[in-house]
Amino acid sequence: MTDLIKTGQKHVASGCGRIKDHMIEKGEGSWLHTNETKYLDFTCGIGVTNLGHCHPRVTKAAQEQVATLVHGQCSIGFHRPYVQLIEKLLPVMPHPSLDSFFFLNSGSEAVENAVKIARKSSGKTHGNIICMQGSYHGRTYGASALTKSKTIYAEQVGHGMPGIFATPFPYAHQMGLPQSTPEDELVKQCLFQLEMLLAQQSAPADTAAIILEPVIGEGGYVPAPSSYLHGLRQICDDNNIMLIIDEVQSGFGRTGKYFASEYSGVRPDILVIAKGIANGFPLSGVVTRKELTDKMPKGSLGGTYSGNAISCAAGVECANIMREEKILDNVKARSAELLAALKELQTDSETKHLFADVRGLGLMIGVEFVSSSKHPIPNASISNATPNNVGGRVQKRCLEKGLMLLTTSAFDVIRFIPPLTITKDEMELGCKIFKESVREVAKEK
After folding, report:
1. Transferase as a keyword (predicted)?
2. Are the C-beta atoms of residues 276 and 252 closer than 8 Å to each other?
3. pTM above the 0.90 mark?
4. DSSP 3-state assignment of 16?
5. In this predicted model, what pLDDT tens digit does every residue of 243-290 receive, in sequence order?
6. Range of the domain at 155
7. Are 297 and 389 within one domain?
8. Closest by alpha carbon to 241, among 383, 73, 121, 342?
9. Pairing of β 270-273 and β 284-288
């Protein structure tokens, strides 16, 4: 094992943060086992293994598919799991107009194809795309141009996809405003700035789409106010602009509803999905109206491994489990327990001075600490083992105690993304470790 770890340290590309002295050997439910220890996993592969590691029903579905058809190329013909997955997803779409599906491998691929569809179907072939300050839409060359959470994803590699503009997202800290700023004031200012962008930088006739996450992820786990989403929808309708909603991380039950956009009821023109769709098997998708995809020339959408049969079969079983095992009910119950524990720390006389904010939906919760209350942390790593900020120190202590958490954003934020199947006892254990770690950090000079 030591030899394998040394090989990895020497030969695996280093442009990725990771724990470099352990080998992940096994995943089981809410737990990750390494060559040395096991961790209660509150990261889910960054929101991927929503149903826990190696859910037996998903494993069985994938094993059976391996023996039937591994690769059914999407440009040649339909295959059964692909179409079955569409049948499972149609009833849970956030709006009935979303009736045309195209499956790919990764979130970045889905985002780039969503942009392609938006530009082609809107008739604005070279149309600009407006994204949000603090957004994350991927690290590939095109998608990284839409990612504004941190500069590290596109630093010193050029500008990527052209025609990208960023507009403020209603997040007080990011706007340089007090945390106590009323939500309606944040929304008002952000919608005004978007109107100014359309008046001064990217005319509506030159703007193909606006893209955003309904809960901004890598930017700090900040839910978009419903009034802001309704304001975007109105601006898009008034100016013939497509609204792309990226639910790569917030979809498939993560926020307590199948899709976070259900909280507002706002209709996306194009929906981007991935992560929890197949519980770890590579799969993503673009969902839109058939009238839009009918405008795409034959052959303009495709990909060698797009909509892989094994991944789709896993996705079908995930959809069954979501319904039959009442996963959303568990999310709501565990979310209440997690938020209660975090709010307790936020108001405790010994620890409240560390907390700037606790926010989120379902089991997509962010805790922002005060150490970045004045300035952001330049390119903070999601897995920095020796940080100086409060969140990083808390993360390190949690890891030492057997709880795996991730930091996120340019600010000092820890994100909670445990499995949606996490038990009451496991949640209690995770909260206990987090509380102990925060209290230890609070006593440090």
Report:
1. yes
2. yes
3. yes
4. coil
5. 999 999 999 999 999 999 999 999 999 999 999 999 999 999 999 999
6. 59-324
7. no
8. 121
9. antiparallel
